[in-house]
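User: Hello! I'm new to structural biology and keep hearing that structure can be predicted from sequence alone. Could you demonstrate with ABC-2 type transport system ATP-binding protein? Please show me the input and the output so I can see what each looks like.

Assistant: Of course. The first part below is the input, the amino acid sequence of ABC-2 type transport system ATP-binding protein. The second part is the output, the predicted structure written as tokens.
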Amino acid sequence: DAAIEIRNLVKRYAPPKGGEAKVALDGIDLTIPRGSIFGLLGPNGAGKSTTINILAGLVNKTSGGVRIWGFDIDRNPRNARASIGIVPQELVFDAFFTPAEMMEVQAGLYGVPKADRRTEELLKAVRLWDKRDAYSRTLSGGMKRRLLVAKAMVHNPPVLVLDEPTAGVDIELRQQLWDYVRELHARGTTIVLTTHYLEEAEELCDTIAIINHGRVLCCEPTQDLLARI
Ligand code: ADP
Ligand code: ADP
């Protein structure tokens, strides 16, 4: 089985009053192998976030099929969601909660038994253990991004998906994030990330799919793609 299999995925957003429906995904087909670091590359508006948000259960697809770790998201949503961790693009947090508290809430949400919780290990891995009791409003953008990565890993999913992980992030933090992503990959996690920077996909990913206007233009090993352009 693939890590993620997407078949003829279509998303039409409801039209604004008096407007036309927006076709965000126009028949996406993708097979993301287990064990890969896979880059979804494309310009703004290509449909990257929509694809990720469907995987995350945040957006309902119009039609098509999606399997995560072999589990169909319609027929087997519990197993599908247990198999994937999502790092969203937006840094939205409740200002009155701390990293330690958010990790516990997330673990509860995913039904991780108390004995199996890894708040300390995960917050240390993203270098936020010192900030575990700080209110989230006091965290920098980079810290929030790292907290989102730690949160996405609470249930130890085999697949981690990051939506534009380094958007608006400085060079030093970008390097740190990449290092951590590489480390997770080395330990066996399948990684999927979206980016609109070719250099980022090139540096990190073994396979790259280019999407535009809601369609897959190509999907191939990074070295083959680079040899062509
Ligand atoms: P990016 O290209 O960085 O993914 P977008 O500008 O496409 O960012 O979208 C940012 C957010 O705004 C997303 O959460 C998306 O769902 C939402 N959004 C984008 N376009 C529209 C739109 N036309 N109407 C309503 N929401 C939108
Ligand atoms: P990307 O992440 O590649 O920038 P998105 O998936 O955010 O692309 O957007 C794909 C298309 O769908 C864009 O044209 C965007 O404006 C539109 N879109 C995204 N979110 C919404 C939304 N919530 N409502 C309406 N249109 C949207």
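User: So the tokens describe the shape?

Assistant: Right, they're a compact way of writing down the 3D structure. Reading them back into a model, for example: The first strand starts at residue 4 and ends at 13.
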